[in-house]
Amino acid sequence: MHISPLIDRLIEALQVLPGVGPKSAQRMALAILRQNRTGGGRLADTLREAIEKVGYCRRCRTFSELEYCGICQDARRDRQTLCIVESSADIFAIEHAGGYRGTYFVLHGRLSPIDGIGPDALGLDALAELVGGGGIEEVILATNPTVEGEATAHYITEILRHTDVRLSRIAHGVPLGGELEYVDGGTIVHALMGRRRIGGAD
Question: Residues 156-170: pLDDT tens digits?
């Protein structure tokens, strides 16, 4: 049943958002029209402006409407440490967790030959140029612990192996508060391989 072609288009448009299906999109559309048209207009205006103005930071490749993002412009950040992530969402997660004061490089994906995603699509030439420019002492590989993420980390390791930078990989293991009997085997293996010394004889 089609009540309004324009409402149908709005519902269909909202489904471009991740995790939003027809029912969720319908609820959103009707809620905006019923009780928050001002907010809907602000959303439309901001979305249009973001699409027109947001590009990529020249240094780290995260989303930014400026030539350099706020993190890359921040003189208080540790420019000797570079964390490589798959997406800008990973930056939000790390920044929210706190404790990291270095800079980033965003791949916007991971190696996946099946999907046609090769090294060129990930900006690895720009990464090699950035590291080769000097000033970076450690590169942290923070790709996800998937087959593609591990392959991407390995490929980057090979690219940067000839440089003087120290390469490290984020640890993957048992989550805080987790119990071993409920943790999958792959996670336990990663936790054992990434173990660190806590004391004892040298």
Answer: 999 999 899 999 998
